[in-house]
Known about the structure:
This protein is of the alpha+beta class and 102 residues long. It has one domain (4-93): Alpha-Beta Plaits (2-Layer Sandwich). It has helices at 17-32, 61-68, 71-80; strands at residues 4-11, 37-44, 51-58, 89-93. The chain has a 4-stranded antiparallel beta sheet with strand order 2-3-1-4. A hairpin with a 6-residue loop joins strand 2 and strand 3 (51-58). The chain is globular, with a radius of gyration of 14 Å.
Amino acid sequence: MTNVTILFHVSIRAERREDLVDALSVVAALSGEEDLCLAYDIYTTDRSKTDLVVVQTWETREGYETHNRLGYVGALFDRFENDLLEPVRRTILCPASEIASL
């Protein structure tokens, strides 16, 4: 199986977006120290002052799932839960030739 890429679409109150970007930057740095994390990038969009897209690439699905069980990941969600405009949307990507592996 090839790497797994996960997209997160986050809509947060505009006045809290920079705080979330700062917190995500810390999580990205910590994630980058994990053995199976290949990339962790944070993007803003040109269409909204409330939206962010987080793109994570992991060597394996198991590496991603292990990452999600770490305390700092849950703490991030807890900290900003009341500032979200809608639930975070997660999309797991893989090559079409490997669709059965999802």
